Amino acid sequence: MPRLALRWATAAIIIVALAVTSALVANRTLFSAEHAVESLHKHLLAGEGAEALGLMGAQVPQGDAVALDGEVLKRTQAGITEFDAQKADSSENDPDLHTVTAKYKADGVEQESTYTLRRTGKSWLFFDQWSFEPVMLPTVRVKANTVNEVAVNDQKIPLVKGVSTLPVFYPSITDASFSTKNFEADTRGVVVTGPAKEPVEISLKTQPTKEFIAQVNSKVRTYLNECAAQQVLMPSGCPFAYHTPSRVNPETIEWSIAKYPTIEVNYYNGAWVLSPLKVTAKLSLTEQDLRTGTLEKKTVNEQFSFTAQLTTSTSEVSVVPVAGTEE
Fold first, then answer.
1. What angle do CA 239, 310, 305 make, to 5 degrees?
2. To bridge 31 with a disulfide, which of 5, 86, 127, 155 should be the other Cys (CB 3.0-4.6 Å)?
3. Full DSSP string of 106-167
């Protein structure tokens, strides 16, 4: 009996030792500060914004919260790969305060983010409990002219006076762009790696679309063709004219456009403007000398300049030419 009791006692000691060892290992892994950071990242990947906010205890600044949950949140995380929370470093002044650095790639570029966590106690005697030190989430400010909405990570959001501010988690990748019938902006993206006092800014560069330029070009050409159809020396409301002291038979007057203007549109002082235009007009006519009565056929090529006022929206354009002068 004493020998059997000894065996049972030895077995019990071994079991307790194994249990304690397992608990210590679990505390260093499943209940570590690094594991809390990994858990946060998993929530972000899954688009679980509410769970991530609850875990972080973060403050949410004012703005459009579209990137804080669901599919848009998932898309902000799509380019974050190889996320790895490094071993936590404890503070010399506060042993319960730990800093965890997470290393990862953002669209293939190596980046890192830092998190501060506090040990708040233990559960079941062995397992550490952690909470994130409260922070204010960072923000991204999107700016664009001409349009009243843009696409952020494929989700359309409104702009107020050309601006929208979005709170975001970190790390995250925020992309913005827009495309309308008349104007577009190439996609621009920013990587947010941590809290910041000022928003990270995406300033979209608006450009006229090829379709918009084609519309303006067509309207300008139509205007010039209508001018050329007038059998007079000074077509009404048109940039070109011909002056001569000789008598001219109107039936011999024939205008045509030798070279149409090149269309160039720029954004200036809050509006889209058309650069000054130059047109080369060809005139064929027969002149009669008032003194001798001699008839002379002439062909004249002259360059004239004019301007045109643009009125635009994302889908419409109006072109109002202003007659100019001879070069």
1. 25
2. 127
3. ETTEEEEEEEEEEEEEEETTTEEEEEEPP-BPPEEEEE-SS-SEEEETTEEEE-BTTEEEEE
Residue whose entry in the numeric block shows the structure tokens 């790390």: 171
Domain boundaries, the chain: 27-206, 210-326
pTM: 0.78
Phi, psi of 24 (to 5 degrees): -65, -40
Compute the half-sphere exposure of residue 251: CA atoms within 13 Å on the CB side of its CA.
0
List the structure tokens of 32. 């570590």
- The whole-angstrom separation of Cα 277 and Cα 238 is 13
Q: Is the CB of residue 60 less than 8 Å from the CB of residue 137?
A: yes
pLDDT digits (tens, 9 = 90+) for 14-49: 544 434 433 333 334 446 999 999 999 999 999 999
42 membership: H or E segment, kind and range: helix 33-45
Q: Is 32 helix (H, G, I), strand (E, B) or coil?
A: coil
- Rounded average pLDDT over 203-210: 95
CB 212 within 8 A of CB 181: yes
8 A C-beta contact, residue 135 and residue 156: no
Q: Express each pLDDT in 113-171 by its tens digit.
A: 999 999 996 865 557 899 999 999 999 999 999 899 999 999 999 999 999 999 999 99
Length of the chain: 327
Return the exposure string of 129-140: e unless at least 16 CB atoms fall within 10 Å of the residue's CB, then b: ebebeeeebbbb
Using DSSP bridges, classify how beta strands 277-288 and 254-259 pair: parallel, antiparallel or unpaired.
antiparallel
Say which DSSP state 320 is in. Answer: E
